Amino acid sequence: MLEMRPDCERCGADLPADEGGAFICSLECTFCADCADALDERCPGCGGELLDRPARVGATLKKYPAATERRFCG
Are the beta carbons of 67 and 4 closer than 8 angstroms? Predict the structure, then answer.
């Protein structure tokens, strides 16, 4: 199950689980669209490709809440 991390690890922007615009690698490093573009769609940690993170909404988000620990590494 995806953690659905709450922020961009590069710039700290909020990335709500129920909205689009987040990009993740296979290790779930999480970036906003602007940072993913600046990184040429490659994770700086593992070198993996950054892909759109799916949104988690409604009852599923309630049953499986998003992570709250922020990982801004700026």
Answer: yes
Question: What is the identity of the amino acid at 33?
Answer: A
pTM above 0.90, yes or no: yes
26-60 burial code (b ≥16 CB/10 A, e <16): eeebbbbbebbeeeeeebeeeeeebeebebbeeee
- Asked whether the predicted pLDDT for residue 51 surpasses 70, the reply is yes
Residue 19 has a CB neighbour count (10 Å cut-off) of 12
67 vs 17: CA distance, rounded Å: 9
pLDDT digits (tens, 9 = 90+) for 7-36: 999 999 999 999 999 999 999 999 999 999
Domains by residue range for the chain, with CATH: 1-63 (3.30.40)
